[in-house]
Amino acid sequence: MPALAKRTEQVMPFYAVELFKQANALNAQGRDVISLGIGEPDFTAPAQVLETLDRAARAGLSGYTPPAGIAPLRDAIAHYYSQQFGATVDPHRVVVTSGASGALLLLSMALINPGDEILMPDPSYPANQNFITGAGGIPRLIPCGAQQRFQLSAADVRKHWGPATRGVLIASPSNPTGTTIARADLQALITEVRQRGGFVIMDEIYLGLYYEQAPQSALTLDEDVIIVNSFSKYFHMTGWRLGWLIAPASMVPAVEKLAASLAICAPSLAQHAALACFEPDVMRIYENRRLSFKQRRDYLLPEFERLGLHVPVVPDGAFYIYADISAHSQDSDDFSHRLLHEAGVAAVPGRDFGAAWARQTMRFSYATGLDRLQEAIARIERFLE
């Protein structure tokens, strides 16, 4: 066997995927497993999107597109940011990618040199570390507690920025916590990074899934913040592998050059179909679905507290609850394993998201129907008894 590259040892595993495999194996054996693990909406693309896909396929629009994506979709995304999130965006700053993962790959390759350090909050989405590592960088997770909504702060930047630090990678709303960064706190963080000549990559993949006040993009605070977003979560098109980034105009030629070699283009039929997402009738469907997610969250929060699964910070976005299980266990791995195999409920142990709170926390996804959530609560209650 040839020797593998050292980066294969440095890449962080994604335990949620392993949990998903175990749950599928139990399902194959005839067990009924309720998945509160994988962050995949139970909704799928609306009929109008499917019809647009069919028309595009029949019209032969399946060839390569420009590396940055088709112009109508770049225009539509820019308009979406203006209408929904208050940010004026030149469509030429939008690059359509193969999911948010494709966007993070391109940005990591464009911005990170070997040895560069990138600050991230602990907890955070584990795969993001691997894009940094793949580019030769060093992800540095900073423990961020409930008092700061599990989000990186300006004080963290001041304390932990070092000679090798190049920038920060943050998310609002966050996976796994569902928490947003308050506007004043985000402005302070951006200012600290800018004073040090660094970059801010903001993951806004869950920006459309909000449950309190309407959100604004980080671009409304600083137009040079680099944005990552996707059609996977709010638009319920996970397997379509379509996302985008918004970068400063000076960066776009370099990103396009990388995209032309590393991806050629995002899936062309998915690009044409995604144009239907922004039609008024389809946007109303997405709004109704957002309210369904809010209903699920509002059902689960008091039930979790009743069962002693404390939620330190109420999630105001995404579809996750980040719960403290320490009243029942000091080992989230064991708790997760037993919950799956004894109660038939899959949820992700804290180690996926960083070391700081790994043993005492778990992530529960409510991207499944309310009836299944109610059954999951009944199963968890019996399990705890």
From TrEMBL:
Entry keyword Transferase: yes
- Cited InterPro entries: Aminotransferase_I/II_large, AspAT/PAT-like, PyrdxlP-dep_Trfase, PyrdxlP-dep_Trfase_major
Q: Name one GO molecular function term.
A: transaminase activity
Q: Does the keyword Methyltransferase apply?
A: no
Aminotransferase class I/classII large domain location = 32-380
Which of UniProt's keywords are assigned here?
Aminotransferase, Pyridoxal phosphate, Transferase
Q: Classify the source by domain of life.
A: Bacteria
- What GO biological process term is on the record, naming one? amino acid metabolic process
Task: Give the protein's cofactors.
Answer: pyridoxal 5'-phosphate
Report the family membership.
Answer: Belongs to the class-I pyridoxal-phosphate-dependent aminotransferase family.
Cross-referenced PANTHER family, in alphabetical order? AMINOTRANSFERASE, ASPARTATE AMINOTRANSFERASE
Q: What is this protein called?
A: Aminotransferase
